[in-house]
């Protein structure tokens, strides 16, 4: 796979089929960033009340990209979910693991397709095959950093810099994705609609708006074109939900 050309901003994402690598400007001290691509936390708010916190990191080492996430309920239950996604330099899935107190699951490649292994309590693990290529995206429930990774993939494979502006393929782009917790696959569509103003922590900011849609949902992703295309906010109007980077 050939590398996507740099979009000519200081430090930007250069993704090929889901690869998480960065083009670093010579003026940037690469040692200060090490192998960490992104880290932080998202607050999930329903009708203005914080209900979940997702703490995440995205790292790359020896050609392997690792996306780790921890989702904690901010209510009385204190329930916890964790996930770890590993991909090769060409965007092929190496392994995806998810677990909570009730069970766990693992998604692995098998003969260029995918297989999911589910363990619940003391029961024997069950397996479910998916006739999907091993470059399919993982979009599991409640892990918003995985939406950030998909947005990077979309921008790098369908967009380019033109006179300092970001130009993308006309119309939505489809991706095949797997939702492991639901044991289902689906097609989603992404489309950059341009730079717009959005409110983050009470301040108005100029962000890039990307629409993410499926058969039964419509989300708006807001990424910062001046800060490595990091995901800053997600709007889910049908559920009265907002996700905001802390």
Structure description:
By secondary structure, this protein is mainly β. The protein is 6% helix and 58% strand. The protein has 1 helix and 19 strands.
Counting structural domains, the number is 1
Helix content: under 10%
- The strand order across the widest sheet is 10-9-8-7-6-5-4-3-19-18-17-16-15-14-11
Order of helices and strands: EEEEEEEEEEEHEEEEEEEE
Enumerate how many helices there are, as a single number: 1
End-to-end distance: 35 Å
Radius of gyration: 18 Å
What features would you highlight for this structure?
246 residues, 15-stranded mixed beta sheet, two-stranded antiparallel ribbon, globular, disordered N terminus
What is the gist of this entry?
The chain has 246 residues and is mostly beta strands.
Secondary-structure map:
Layout: E1 11-14, E2 21-24, E3 36-46, E4 49-61, E5 64-73, E6 80-87, E7 93-100, E8 103-110, E9 113-120, E10 126-130, E11 137-138, H1 145-158, E12 159-162, E13 165-168, E14 173-179, E15 184-200, E16 203-213, E17 218-224, E18 230-236, E19 241-245
Parallel strand pairs: 11-14
Antiparallel strand pairs: 1-2, 3-4, 3-19, 4-5, 5-6, 6-7, 7-8, 8-9, 9-10, 12-13, 14-15, 15-16, 16-17, 17-18, 18-19
